[in-house]
Structures are given as structure tokens and as C-alpha cells.
Amino acid sequence: MDEMDMEEGGAVKKFMFVNRKAPYGTIYALEGLEVVLISAAFDQDVSLAFCDDGVYELKKGQDTKGIGVKNFSPTYRALEGYDIEKLYVEKESLEARGLTEDDLLVDVQVLSSAELGAMMAEQDVVISF
Amino acid sequence: MSFEINGKVYETDEEGYLVNLSEWNEDAAKHLAVEEKIELTDQHWEVINFLREYYNDYQIAPAVRVLTKAIGKKLGPEKGNSKYLYELFPYGPAKQACKIAGLPKPTGCI
Amino acid sequence: MLHIINKSPFERSSLDSCLRIAQGGALLLIEDGVYAAGKGSAAEAKIKQAMGGMKVYALGPDVAARGLADRVIDGVTLVDYAGFVDLVAENTNVQSWL
Lengths: 129, 110, 98
Fold this sequence. Notes:
The complex is a heterotrimer. Chain B is mainly alpha-helical. Chain B has helices spanning 26-35, 42-58, 64-75, 82-88, 93-100, and strands at residues 2-5, 8-11. In chain B, β1 and β2 (8-11) form a beta hairpin. The two termini of chain B are 22 Å apart. Chain C is an alpha/beta fold. Chain C has one domain: 3-Layer(aba) Sandwich (Hypothetical Protein Ychn, Chain: A). Chain C has helices spanning 14-21, 44-50, 60-65, 81-90; strands spanning 2-5, 26-29, 55-59, 77-79, 94-97. At the A-C interface, loops of A face α3 of C.
């Protein structure tokens, strides 16, 4: 399309970023998101998995004005523009937290633990946050 | 680092990006553009305003590839290409335009 | 006595330990601890049981930050930072279950 396209020949690997932490209690969720955004520059086959408290990263209606921390949840909606469209959420984690797909601020594919595990096994590289 | 316009002081980081995004206004943009040796035209403002809107929606400064694609979608293919954007912002649309728009340096900007 | 929990009940055992050991008093959920106050979660039954013997509070700004403002378990009282200070002052001692 333009000169930003990567040159031919580089092997495309399957990368999965696994998000398991709630958004504000630790820095993991934000750091993980930044790594994902940076990884988009390398034209790899990137997917994101959300399980355990990581599903809370995608919860709608976050309002951080009262805690003086940046609300980075809108950034997950920018992932599509970065051509990162494979977002998987573990069903069991949602259910344990009383959440459904409707509570999430982006479109995701909800997978069972076994399905997510199978997806994970297919990857070349798995990076966990 | 900082600069001053009409008695108001704007703090910047070591690369010249505004520290406090909420302080941004057109005067600050004009000053930042002068620093970048860019004379702002309507075409520049179109990109700057686009970036401000993008930041407002997503809380990040877009990577140049993403910016190019998004501009193309919104303003048409004759503007959504690197050539057009580099003509406006010769040292990199993401870096320079983001700086003038008062945004942080784009994540993944190398 | 005021018991403070700041970790998610799904990641740490601090809430469980607190509820097992604490003998009445007040429970304040802050930071990721507020996830325990979310309606419909696996922690709901524990919080409801705790309300039998303790007064349960959650820090409002932490609840809002996590997008839980509209789904706090009935009976959990939201407090702001000033309310947090009041709770500390009202109680003779405080245990933070780190």
C-alpha cells in the first residue's frame, strides 16, 4: 500500500498476549497493552487472551476520575485500528465474576477454558501479563 | 523545560512534548509549530484536530500507520497516505503532528 | 475493629482469611478488593454471609474506576475518602490484610 509496508521475507509468527490482571491494582494490564500496541508495528499474527481478573480490563463503564489514574480502557477499542482483531475471553472467568459479553467494551470471542487452551497451544510465542 | 505565551507557562518534557495535555490550546499549538519550523495551514489543522479527536476517543496517540489509515477513512484517500502527511509534517506526522496537537509521543514510535 | 482488603478475591486469599478470622467489626473493600462487592460474582455469597456479622463498606472511587458503580451488592455501603478516614477514626484499631 505504501512504504510503511514491511519488506517481504520476514517470518510471521503467532503471538498471544495473555492478560490475567485487573486494570488498576497493578501496572501489568497497562504495560501489557503498551507491548501489544508496539507489537502491532511488526506485522505479526497477534491475538489477545483475557482470563482471570484480566477480564476486568474490558469492563464497560470505568471512571477513574476519583482515583487520579488514567482510564486506559478506551484504548482497547483502538486495537481494531491496529489490525488486532483476535480478542479471546475465557467464559469461566467471566462467569465467576458475574459478567457477560454485554459487560465488555469491545467485541470479543468467548471461549471455554479448553478452547482457549487449545488456542494457546497453537501459538509460536505466548507472553503473559 | 517550558515556554511562555501571554504570561501563561507551559511545561514540556525534554523532547518538547507538552507535559500537561489539558493545557493545550491554539496558542500553544502555534508556538509548538514554530519550534518545529512548520507554518500551520488549514491542512495542518485538519490533521491536528483529527489527532485530538483520536486521543479523546482512545486515550493514545496513534502509530503513524494507524493514523494514515484512519485519516484516509475520515478525510479521503488523497489525504490518507504517507506522502501527503509527510509533506505537511516532514519529520514524521506522528511525532511532529502529535507534538503540535499536545499529545504524548505515540506508543511504539521508534 | 476495621478490616481493610485491597486485593481481588479471585487472585488472593486475603478476603477469605479475613472473613475466617475476623470477629465482627467493619470490613472496608478498597483498590482491587472492591471486586468482591460486584453483584453476581463468586464472591457475592461470601460478602452476603459476612454482612451477617459485620458492616461492609467499599471505597466509591475504586468502585467507579473499575466500572462497578451500577452493580454493587445491596447492603454494601459506599464511602468516599473522607468516609474512609471516618471509619479509621471510629474504630479502635485497623487490620490491613495485605
